[in-house]
Specification:
globular; alpha+beta
């Protein structure tokens, strides 16, 4: 019985030996590095269309930023004002970043990124918190705004 308790207590300790505050600090530094390098992926779990109810997403949707290239694989729910016949690609495209601004508040980074696709022009407003959680608001000329909630992928938050 004592041996079982000893094994269970050892299994519940943090293998890295870092305190919670140290782990949070390390994660905040990795988030900052990924954002400054413009090399990160945000996986989204829910979508909130303007004027609609929140939608939980089951597929692996994401927004990937790699330098001056964006790979947007996001669903669109909402009103489209002017789109190609059949609905077009929506928010599923690879595009070029035409503008990129970053600022920082107390515990979050604010990014405003302009992106061109062959169908539309988009502005992505991205808030990333030190723990890796993120909020993405997508504004476009031809569609209503939509907000996504997610977090940075673990590959961005692992020590490199």
């Amino acid at each position: 019985m004592v041996a079982c308790l000893a094994i269970l207590s050892c299994a519940s300790t943090d293998p890295s030996g870092l305190s919670k505050a140290e782990r949070q600090q390390q994660q905040a530094m990795m988030v900052q590095k990924a954002l400054l390098d413009r090399n990160y992926t945000i996986s989204v779990q829910s979508a909130h269309p303007t004027g609609g109810a929140p939608i939980n997403l089951s597929s692996p949707y994401s927004l990937k930023v790699n330098g001056d290239t964006v790979v947007s694989y996001l669903p669109f729910f909402g009103r489209a004002y002017s789109v190609p016949y059949g609905g077009g690609k929506g928010l599923n495209f690879t595009g070029k970043v035409i503008s990129y601004e970053t600022s920082r508040n107390k515990k979050e980074y604010n990014i405003k990124m302009g992106v061109d696709s062959d169908e539309d022009q988009y502005i992505y407003y991205i808030d990333v918190y030190e723990n890796g959680r993120a909020v993405i608001l997508v504004a476009s000329k031809n569609r209503s705004n939509i907000t996504f909630y997610g977090e940075m992928d673990d590959q961005n938050l692992s020590a490199k």
